[in-house]
Write a structure and sequence with these properties.
The chain is an alpha/beta fold. It has two domains: about 15-220, Rossmann fold (3-Layer(aba) Sandwich), CATH 3.40.50; about 235-480, P-loop containing nucleotide triphosphate hydrolases (Rossmann fold). Helix content is about 30%, strand content about 20%.
Length: about 475
């Protein structure tokens, strides 16, 4: 990932770390935190010193927020999760809970300390993990895309909380981000890595943007004020449904008065159900895209998963078109897994959780093999999608060794390669630079234009504008427009 990288960051400096997807931003944060030796692959040479001490011998006191928030959850309830670090630092018991309450408030976490962590959305989990990073008052704060799964209002609240925390402690801060604009005026320095992990720009943010803006755009950096790129042109042969939808199957799946209650487990017992979706009408229509929007925790992921046949409704109606029913059953959640996979593909909000194969190429081929797709055609589609999504050089890599942005692109390829009728994606553009964003949006748009029914849960307004004519906005599980 890095070869001869040299950096010096003075104590108390606030650094914005930028670069294309897969450039090593997350790896650099892990290196500073002293976590590289915990990795299951790769080799390391050179040293990382914090306050003159080698981090491999003595890891620094650092608050680290990972790009996959679920990887940092360690307890069943929100309060216990935030308290975990304080307990490990042997903070007196009488100090722990006031500090936990303060950190949850600062991160704008929307629930109390007893709320089950298993019942959180990705954005809510992100705020919980931020609270866990802030509560320790460590002299080093490392944040990896801390607002990537949050709506605009929640993102602003999180940035304010981070800024207050930094001002109070004077801690050294490194923030890895793709979307630079909101952070530019909050940091002292911007460091930009290229695709090979080399430093291509380093200095005060405004000076870097003024002198190297065009170069950064070419690398894929989201330079503030620049319009979103045009979606990549994608051949229909790589993305169209494997079989033509039945005649008249415009609305492949329809939901009416859909209600979904989710039950979490706490200490081995089921908790009171959480109402995630309430009385929603929606439809998946061939050749159209539906954008599902709303604040974090509004029920977007649950609705998309229900439309994909992965969640059984508590009440209401969820039916497929008769032409794609399985043995007369029109309820997608009742279909056998191979039949469901052949018809509906789902891209999870946390892509690492969906990995089933040992190599990138096998991951893209897996669903098609399970569905009995013709081998040579499936291989051509898989190889073509990996090329378009910038993953061909990783075809033999373990999917777990990819960056978060690379994993999302991999799951988009895996969802499209076997040609399902419906394509349902949960935050597919998170962690993407300008170039990979154009590739992801291009693939989804091409699938739509070639007859797939698409639904996208997202906070990315540019993706909504580009992909969808239909928008379904949720608030507290109910449709607001």
């Amino acid at each position: 990932m890095f070869d001869g990288l040299d950096l010096v960051i003075p104590a108390g400096q606030r650094v914005l770390l930028a670069g294309p997807s897969g450039s090593g931003k997350s790896t650099l944060l892990r290196a500073v935190a002293g976590l590289l030796l915990t990795a299951a692959h790769g080799e390391k040479s050179g040293r990382v010193l914090v306050d003159g001490v080698d981090v491999d011998r003595s890891p620094p006191r650092a608050g680290l927020l990972l790009p996959d928030p679920s990887a940092g959850v360690v307890a069943e309830t929100a309060g216990r999760d935030v308290a975990f670090g304080l307990e490990n630092h042997r903070v007196p018991r009488e100090e722990i809970w006031p500090r936990v309450d303060g950190a949850l408030t600062a991160s704008r976490f929307p629930y109390g300390v007893e709320h089950p962590t298993s019942a959180l959305s990705g954005g809510e989990m992100q705020r919980l993990l931020l609270a866990g990073s802030l509560v320790l008052d460590d002299p080093l704060l490392l944040l990896d895309e801390p607002t990537s799964m949050l709506d605009e209002a929640a993102s602003g609240q999180v940035r304010s909380a981070v800024l207050r925390h930094i001002a109070r402690l004077g801690c050294t801060t490194i923030i890895a981000e793709h979307r630079l604009g909101p952070w530019i005026n909050l940091v002292d320095r911007m460091i930009v890595l290229d695709a090979a992990g080399n430093v291509t720009a380093d200095g005060p943010p405004q000076r870097v943007l003024t002198t190297q803006g065009a170069h950064l755009i070419a690398q894929g950096v989201w330079v503030p004020g620049e319009p979103s790129p045009e979606p990549m042109t994608v051949p229909g042969s790589l993305v169209r449904p494997w079989e033509t939808p039945p005649d008249g199957a415009g609305e492949l799946v329809t939901a009416a008065d859909l209600r979904v209650e989710l039950a979490a487990r706490l200490g081995g017992r089921r908790t009171e159900p959480v109402l995630a979706v309430d009385g929603v009408h929606a439809a998946l229509t061939a050749g159209r895209a539906l954008a599902v929007t709303g604040p974090s925790g509004a029920g977007k992921s649950t609705l998309v998963a229900a439309l994909a046949g992965l969640v059984r409704p508590t009440a209401g109606r969820l039916l497929s078109h008769p032409g794609i029913a399985v043995r007369g059953r029109r309820e997608p959640w009742k279909w056998p897994a191979p039949c469901l996979a052949a018809r509906m593909a789902w891209v999870a909000q946390l892509p690492e959780h969906a990995v089933v194969a040992r190599t990138v190429l096998d991951e893209v081929l897996t669903s098609g093999r399970c569905c009995g797709r013709e081998r040579d055609c499936l291989q051509v589609r898989a190889e073509g999608l990996l090329e378009l999504l910038g993953l061909s050089h990783l075809r033999s890599a373990n999917p777990y060794h990819l960056s978060g942005g690379e994993q999302r692109r991999l799951m988009v390829a895996a969802a499209v390669a076997h040609g399902p009728y419906g394509l349902l994606l949960d935050e597919p553009t998170v962690g993407q630079d300008r170039n990979t964003w154009a590739a992801v949006v291009g693939v989804v748009a091409a699938a739509r234009d070639n007859g797939s029914a698409v639904a996208v849960s997202t906070h990315d307004q540019a993706a909504v504008t580009t992909l969808a004519k239909d928008e379904l906005a949720l608030q507290h599980g109910r449709r607001t427009r």
